[in-house]
Design a protein that fits this description.
By secondary structure, the chain is an alpha+beta fold. The chain has three helices and ten strands. Helix 1 crosses helix 3.
Length: 154
């Protein structure tokens, strides 16, 4: 399943390379790779299996299970890939120097990530937040341009 996951990552990173990290990117991703797409269903399945098999979200801190699966490099078009598993909690405050592109995969029907149900949420460069899941459990895949993230105090 890990090979399938990596292939799905290549598909998405190649489709967004060079695009600005902004609301137009969020719209593009939700139109072409949103919750009704085969790509989304395949990625959600690959992530759930990866968590079950232990190669995704294999660390834990403060109730958040997490893990960096892909370091930024040529195979990922310069994006790092992290996956977190959260249920009804807020994670650590951080800044996105180059933006953050999040794929929200609810594991319970009413789960939301920063208010977003299943689909994509894009934060522009220099934005900041305390990632929060409400309404249940969600897996969230983070694409970080150049792997850039700065943990801060809110």
């Amino acid at each position: 399943m890990r090979d399938s996951f990596e292939s799905l990552i290549k598909t998405i990173t190649q489709s967004i390379t060079g695009r600005p990290v902004d609301t137009a990117l969020e719209d593009y991703l939700n139109r072409h790779h949103g919750p009704d797409s085969d790509w989304f269903r395949d990625m959600a399945r690959a992530c759930a299996i990866g968590v079950d098999e232990g190669w995704l979200c294999n660390r834990e801190a403060g109730g958040v299970r997490y893990g960096r699966v892909v370091k930024p490099g040529p195979d990922s078009a310069g994006f790092s890939v992290d996956v977190v598993d959260m249920a009804d909690l807020a994670g650590p405050h951080h800044v996105h120097p180059n933006g953050e592109i999040d794929l929200v995969m609810p594991q319970t029907a009413d789960a939301r990530f920063d208010g977003t149900p299943a689909g994509w949420k894009v934060y522009p460069p220099r934005s900041a937040h305390r990632p929060t899941v409400t309404g249940g459990r969600a897996l969230v895949l983070y694409l970080l341009p150049d792997g850039a993230i700065e943990f801060t105090k809110p």
